[in-house]
Write a structure and sequence with these properties.
The protein is an alpha+beta fold. The protein has 6 helices and 5 strands. It is rod-shaped.
């Protein structure tokens, strides 16, 4: 078969010739670009993940102003419940108010120093403000005082509580002396 016969055969079957040429070109492209398939799939997965994240952000941003207002209200309410470490008089006044509400006798109330932060560490946003308190009263009064402190306006955590019965000379007294350490959540 000569070149003239080959050209005549190709002219006789133009559709088959065109399909053959397209198949050869497609095979060559597939062969030379097959190594880029993995990178293209990774890029597709990355773009798909970005798209899902952006779609979720758009969907969640629908009620963002209402959520922001709710968060601000909660933050304001929480801030009102915090104790300020530098306001010693106001902090002690809180315990004196509890004394008058519950009827116990406040023997001693002391705000202890805050524990020192490590050198180079960032200043904490919140701190546990420690107090040592001694009160005297009947069992009901003492429990009422502790309940008011526990359920009161400040976040409180008790670390130690010591109860001692304060009996008179005849042992008939129902007074108790309670010494406890409590930490109120506050700002340093």
């Amino acid at each position: 078969m000569t070149g003239a016969d080959l050209i005549a055969l190709l002219k006789k079957h133009p559709i088959g010739t065109a399909c053959g040429i397209i198949c050869i070109i497609g095979g060559a492209l597939l062969y030379f670009r097959a190594d880029k398939l993995g990178a293209a799939q990774q890029l597709l997965a990355q773009k798909t993940q970005e798209d899902q994240k952006i779609t979720a952000n758009v969907r969640n941003a629908d009620k963002l102003p209402q959520h922001l207002e709710a968060m601000r209200a909660v933050a304001k309410q929480m801030d009102s419940r915090l104790v300020r470490a530098g306001q010693l008089a106001l902090n002690q006044q809180f315990f004196y108010r509890l004394e008058s509400e519950t009827g116990v006798k406040l023997i001693d109330v002391r705000q202890n120093a805050l524990s020192a932060t490590r050198a180079g560490a960032a200043k904490p946003m919140f701190a546990a403000i420690p107090f040592n308190i001694s009160i005297q009263g009947s069992f009901k009064q003492v429990m009422d005082f502790i309940e008011h402190l526990e359920k009161g306006p400040h976040f409180a955590r008790f670390s130690t509580i010591n109860l001692t019965k304060s009996g008179g000379a005849d042992g008939a007294s129902d007074l108790m002396t309670v010494t406890f350490a409590v930490e109120l959540l506050g700002t340093p």
